[in-house]
Design a protein that fits this description.
By secondary structure, this protein is of the alpha/beta class. It is built from 15 helices and 24 strands. The strands form 6 sheets. The chain has a 5-stranded parallel β-sheet. Helix 1 links the parallel strand 2 and strand 3. Helix 1 runs parallel beside helix 12, helix 7 crosses helix 15 and helix 10 packs across helix 11. It is globular, with a radius of gyration of 22 Å. The site of flavin-adenine dinucleotide (FAD) has 44 residues, from helix 1, helix 2, helix 6, strand 10 and helix 7.
Length: about 525
């Protein structure tokens, strides 16, 4: 049995993105908070968010309009109550963020609100042009570091939750810095571990997004739902060396046009909103147009926009493209779809509670129902704030248990350095997932994919000893199986889920969700 270090805490928060940091700042008012993150604090999807955060702040806007837009994007599948919670709280939460130190962009003394695809009003706050996520993450980190009740642990990998009779007792982690297992003894764990973009070969997400939270929660007995709905961002930069980064929707919002290999603008043939059509429509149109010319990308054209405007409005994108030798105002930009956002996740109620007592989920890892079958742009940063606050409000009503029973008898596997086999498994599955569970899905391909994933899961189980690469590959294969199994079960096309063999919506599936838990490893429909 390997040794472990034990740390007691009132609250363990997993993740240093917007959901984790903001929720920690709330909880620190009622107890001691430990925040763990598996890489450096900044490594999170939050850091890379560009477009902005949606909030009802304009005189012309209302929560009803924001609700309508969210429901419309969600393709008839949102939980209306969850959406109301989201939109009614948007302005309060964003104002709090400003009070915490986040500096959004202003124009003539007023918040500069942008209009993004599928939003009927200008309601998207942004910061430093297109560095919104970075500004939010930096301001929240600064506030957390100043807070005497919050302690941040970098390179601390959550391996598994420790439960007893469906109640949280703690969490088992691996610390790279201490080179040992660490057990947090706590009655409250807030999972804010983000999404699973890395499960797909092409993704806009950073490398930490391996779906650990979903897999860990499942192993502990939580319910996982709506995993077939993965949003693909239509316009990630496709470089010749395979690296990818997001070209925000706001570039199309400011007039960017999509052109095929022959230079023709094609989106008007697919949707009346053309380049600003819902993301799934744009993503499928791009795949179709690219395939016509046997390419994996189309072209984004902003050459009709002024160079100074582009540099000022999109400083980060402008600079990154320049590093790749592309001048925004002169050159066409190669773009194609990449996995961007995990809509499903750990099933929660409207206060972020799961079916395990003491386990909460918040942000991208949670499935609250707000995004339905497709997420409205800029609603996800907001979700982290709104539901983080509600988790705090729920816990604040409780009498926080200060005495914990605290004895753990854990049989821990030996740590090992060797990572080659696990890394290979990851690469193979990412390619397969992109190919067979990506933008266009079909029964026979999903069946073959599931078989390959199940073989992969067995291979990981056979690996002796453990390290983060092995844990990640195990989690990614499990999450890949949830995505592909539910994509196979849902015999219709809705929102971000498209089946070439069932290309239309089927009303029988309108209110149906696919759920996995330890008793239903192959999923059931509810
Ligand atoms: C390029 C890009 C642009 C985007 N633009 C926008 C936008 O403009 N507006 C918008 O609303 N949304 C946008 N999104 C989506 C949005 O950024 C994310 O949904 C949101 O930031 C998720 O926040 P989070 O706190 O839930 O997770 P994250 O910010 O991803 O944070 C997750 C954290 O959990 C940690 N973690 C994961 N697993 C473990 C583990 N096993 N142990 C310990 N720690 C772990 C990670 O290291 C990370 O710190 C964008 C996403 C990307 C990738």
């Amino acid at each position: 049995m390997s040794e472990f270090e034990k740390i007691e805490t009132d609250f363990l928060v997993v993740g240093s993105g917007i959901a984790g940091l903001y929720t920690s700042l709330q909880l620190s008012g009622i107890g001691e908070v430990k925040v763990i993150t598996k890489d450096e604090i900044k490594e999170s999807s939050t850091e890379y968010a560009q477009g902005g955060i949606a909030a009802v702040l304009d005189k012309e806007d209302s929560w009803r309009l924001h609700k309508e837009d969210t429901l419309e994007a969600g393709d008839g599948f949102c939980d209306e109550k969850a959406v109301e919670v989201l939109v009614k709280n948007s302005s309060k939460r964003v104002k709090e963020l400003i009070e915490l130190g986040t500096q959004f962009d202003y124009i003539e003394g007023e918040l500069d609100l942008a209009r993004e695809g599928a939003h009927s009003r200008r309601r998207v706050l942004h910061a430093r042009g297109d560095a919104t996520g970075q500004e939010i993450r930096e301001s929240l980190t600064k506030a957390a570091k100043k807070d005497g009740e919050i302690e941040l642990f970098e390179r601390m990998f959550l391996i598994d939750l420790i439960t007893n009779e469906q109640k949280i007792r703690g969490a088992l982690c691996w610390s790279d810095e201490r080179e040992r297992y660490v057990v947090y003894s706590t009655d409250h764990v807030i999972l804010a571990s983000g999404g699973c973009g890395m499960v797909f070969q092409n993704t806009t997400n950073p490398k930490v997004t391996t779906g650990d939270g979903v897999s860990v929660a499942y192993r502990a007995g939580a319910e996982i739902t709506d995993m077939e709905f993965i949003q693909f961002h239509p316009t990630a930069f496709h470089s010749s060396n395979g690296s990818s980064f997001l070209i925000s929707e706001t570039v199309r919002g400011e007039g960017g046009l999509l052109r095929n290999e022959e230079g023709d603008r094609f989106m008007l043939e697919y949707h009346e909103d053309a380049e600003l059509a819902p993301r799934d429509v744009v993503a499928r149109a791009i795949v179709k147009e690219a395939k016509k010319f046997e390419k994996d990308h189309v072209w984004l054209d902003v050459t009709h926009l002024d160079d100074d405007f582009l540099r000022g409005r999109f400083p980060k994108i402008y600079q990154t493209l320049q590093d790749f030798g592309i001048k925004m105002a002169e050159d066409l930009i190669p773009v194609g779809p990449s996995a961007h956002y995990m809509i499903g996740g750990v099933k929660t109620d409207l206060h972020g509670s799961t079916n395990i007592e003491g386990l909460y989920a918040c942000g991208e890892v949670a499935s609250t129902g707000v995004h339905g079958a497709n997420r409205l742009a800029s609603n996800s940063l907001l979700e982290g704030l709104v539901f983080g606050k509600r988790i705090y409000e729920k816990i604040a009503e409780e009498d926080i248990e200060k005495e914990r029973s605290g004895e753990f008898d854990l049989d821990l596997p030996d740590f090992q350095e060797e990572t080659g086999k696990a890394a290979d498994l990851k690469d193979q599955m990412r390619e397969l997932m992109m190919d067979k569970a990506g933008i266009v899905r079909k029964e026979d391909e999903l069946v073959e994919l599931i078989k390959r994933l199940e073989d992969g899961i067995k291979s990981v189980e056979d690996l002796k000893g453990f390290n983060p690469e092995i844990w990640e590959s195990k989690n990614m294969l499990q999450v890949g199986k949830f995505v592909s199994k539910s994509a196979l079960m849902r015999e219709e096309s809705r929102g971000a889920h498209y089946r070439a063999d069932h290309p239309t919506k089927n009303e029988d599936w309108k209110d149906k969700h696919i759920v996995f838990d330890r008793e239903h490893t192959e999923g059931y429909v509810t």
